[in-house]
From TrEMBL:
Gene Ontology BP, a term: cell differentiation
Region (Disordered): 1-72
Function: May play a role as a mediator of inflammation and angiogenesis.
One GO CC annotation: exocyst
Superkingdom, taxonomy of origin: Eukaryota
Gene Ontology molecular functions: SNARE binding
Keywords noted in UniProt: Angiogenesis, Developmental protein, Differentiation
Organism: Lipotes vexillifer (Yangtze river dolphin)
Keyword Transmembrane applies: no
Protein's name in the database: Tumor necrosis factor alpha-induced protein 2
Pfam families in the cross-refs: Sec6
Length: 654
């Protein structure tokens, strides 16, 4: 090494070590701890001996030195204190020159280590300058940032070269091992510290209705998203690709976010915080942050994983489901309680489009729908899990609803708005039906089980509405037997007239339920007519008498059918009930009668021998053997199943 070069390594740097010459001057230049190292970051600082002057960071010009001569340690120190990152190149040259001196021999180990300590002290200054800039890269000028990154990249290359040389067979060395320096790891550690500082800042003032946990999640989520977008837009174009700057920031922010949430999950959370935590972990974080439009492509190869472990997520989901189902159950019970109070307090129901209306069905549907939507806002799978649980609660609620309604029917008949509230509750069944059949999308075998309480409620309500009308009709039907069917047409017309006068009472039912009510009326008229035919008080011995009665029955059947269908009855299944009985009474040939009876039994499987005997009793000209032969036709198993709707099972015969 040249003499000049040796002198370059000579000037001291460490505290308490002065160069040959004026110690006081050296003391003025000596850095005073960490504050002195970072003094270069303060722009515009007035320098000693130059009042009124401000020197921008990294802009001071070095004093002129002979061309080709490496700067001295003192000069490099001064450059670095001014933030001049160009000093990195000469500093690396000094390091290499020291290695060459050591390899050449001729210098004592003590002197080598003394000079190395000065080089290492300069590297501390350079490291702090570089990492200081990279600590807050968005605040640095792009050119300064490029310089710092170039220095860091150069140091990484030197580290790799040193590692390769050591692996190839390290020889004896008087110098202390100083590489690898791991500046890239230090930078990443600084990124992690920056993430912790950014995410750990206190959230903004409390927003209305938000818990402390919600504010913390919102702050961390928003900060992470905005910071990563800034890294993608502003830092990625400047950083070398091998630094993976986006991944470094994403991983650091993710780790701190996950640590915060894991700590929170250890505590007993409120119902709301449990939900919010799951929403962030399962939905908002992966979808709105990691897969947001600006970040999705950049983070595709970064395996960040979930914010919580699968076990923690399962425990939280189980807690959420339990909380949510309990909340839905409580809200539905409260809604029913309030509705029941309105009934018993004789509060008139609302009228909507000419129909009596109750809000209960709407309230219950909203409660259940919101419960499922809340679960689906976490994951669709959780929505499917809670769906089945809510179905169970809905079924239990409908049973409670039916019991409360039956109690109202029994105890509150004297109230002025009794019938209106009965109609309103029957109308409720339509909303529940539509919800289950159309919107809830449940297995096909479930609606019948689920809706059975509604069917009972509707049936009891309709029976209550018709109870008075049927009571009025009872003595009119008795006239058929009292007059021995002398004027059946006149009696039936009076019955039809009474029913027609009362139908407006049911106009506030929904159309579908008014039709169902008319089917009940239709069934009642046919049933009561058959009951009167089956009283065994009328015995006709001639074919002419039987044909005359059959004609009356046919005419009456047509009148009942026309009246009921014109008023909305959908009971087409009753169409054959009276005309076929009329035909059995009219026919005289036992074989023909058997055919009619066999056909009749296929339409009405609940038509028994007892019912047939009551009708055949009208035909006084049948012999005992003919009577038994006709009855025996019902012994033949036709394979007919139980009737879906009952007619003759409602008719008792002696």
């Amino acid at each position: 090494m040249s003499e000049a070069s040796s002198e370059d390594l000579a000037p001291p740097l460490a505290a308490g070590e002065a160069p040959d010459g004026d110690e006081e001057a050296a003391a003025k230049k000596r850095p005073r701890g960490l504050a002195a190292v970072f003094r270069v970051f303060t722009k515009g600082r007035k320098k000693k001996g130059r009042p009124g002057s401000a020197e921008p960071e990294g802009d001071s010009e070095p004093q002129s030195r002979p061309a080709g001569r490496l700067p001295t340690v003192e000069e490099l120190k001064a450059d670095l204190e001014r933030g001049r990152l160009e000093a990195a190149g000469p500093l690396l040259a000094l390091e290499r020159e020291l290695q060459a001196v050591m390899a050449a021999g001729g210098m004592s180990e003590e002197e080598l280590l003394r000079r190395q300590s000065k080089v290492e002290a300069l590297y501390v200054l350079l490291r702090d300058q570089v990492l200081g800039l990279l600590r807050r890269p968005l605040e640095a000028a792009p050119e300064r940032l490029r310089q710092a990154l170039a220095v860091l990249a150069e140091q990484e290359r030197e580290d790799r070269a040193a590692a390769a040389a050591a692996a190839a067979g390290p020889g004896p060395s008087a110098l202390a091992a100083t590489r690898p320096r791991h500046w890239l790891q230090l930078w990443r550690r600084g990124v992690a510290q920056a993430a912790e500082e950014r995410l750990g800042q206190r959230p903004a003032a409390a927003a209305e209705g938000r818990t402390e946990a919600e504010r913390a999640f919102l702050h961390m989520g928003r900060t992470m998203k905005e910071d990563l977008e800034a890294v993608v837009e502003r830092l990625k174009p400047l950083f070398p690709a091998e630094f993976a700057v986006v991944a470094a920031y994403a991983e650091s922010y993710h780790e701190h976010f996950a640590a915060q949430l894991a700590d929170l999950a250890q505590f007993e959370l409120s119902e709301r915080d449990t939900y919010v935590l799951l929403v962030w972990v399962q939905n908002l974080y992966p979808n709105d942050i990691i897969n947001s439009p600006k970040l999705a492509g950049e983070l595709q190869g970064v395996r960040l994983g979930s914010l919580l472990s699968p076990k923690q997520i399962r425990l939280l989901e189980a807690t959420f489901l339990c909380n949510q189902v309990a909340s839905v159950k409580e809200l539905m019970a409260r809604a029913l309680e309030l509705e029941s109070q309105r009934w018993t307090q004789d509060v008139a129901p609302q009228r909507l489009d000419g129909h009596c209306h109750s809000e209960l069905a709407i309230d219950i549907i909203q409660i259940i729908s919101q419960g499922q939507a809340k679960a689906e806002s976490i994951t669709l799978d959780l929505g499917m899990q809670i769906k089945h649980m809510l179905l169970v609660e809905l079924a239990a609620f409908l049973k409670s609803y039916q019991r409360a309604f039956d109690e109202f029917l029994e105890r509150c008949k004297q109230l002025r708005n009794y019938r209106a509230n009965v109609i309103a509750n029957i109308n409720n069944c339509l909303s529940f039906r539509m919800f289950v059949d159309q919107k809830w999308q449940i297995p096909q075998d479930l609606p019948s089980h689920l809706l059975s309480p509604l069917n009972e409620l509707k049936s009891h309500g309709v029976d209550t509405l018709l109870q008075n009308l049927f009571g009025v009709l009872k003595p009119l039907f008795k006239r058929f037997t009292q007059t021995r069917w002398a004027a059946p047409a006149q009696t039936l017309e009076e019955i039809i007239s009474v029913v027609g006068e009362r139908l407006p009472e049911f106009s506030e039912l929904q159309d579908c339920f008014r039709e169902e009510l008319m089917e009940v009326v239709h069934l009642h008229l046919v049933k009561e007519y058959i009951i009167r035919l089956s009283k065994r008080r009328l015995v006709l011995k001639t074919a002419e008498q039987q044909q005359q009665l059959a004609g009356h029955i046919l005419a009456d059947a047509e009148l009942i059918h026309r009246f009921c269908t014109q008023n909305g009855s959908p009971a087409t299944w009753l169409h054959h009930a009276l005309p076929t009985l009329a035909e059995i009474i009219r026919l005289q040939d036992p074989s023909a009668i058997k055919i009619e009876v066999a056909t009749y039994a296929t339409w009405y499987p609940d038509f028994s021998k007892g019912h047939l005997s009551a009708i055949l009793a009208i035909k006084g000209n049948l012999s005992n053997s003919e009577f038994r032969g006709i009855r025996s036709i019902l012994d033949i198993n036709t394979g007919v199943r139980e009737p879906s709707k009952s007619l003759f099972s409602l008719i008792k015969v002696g």
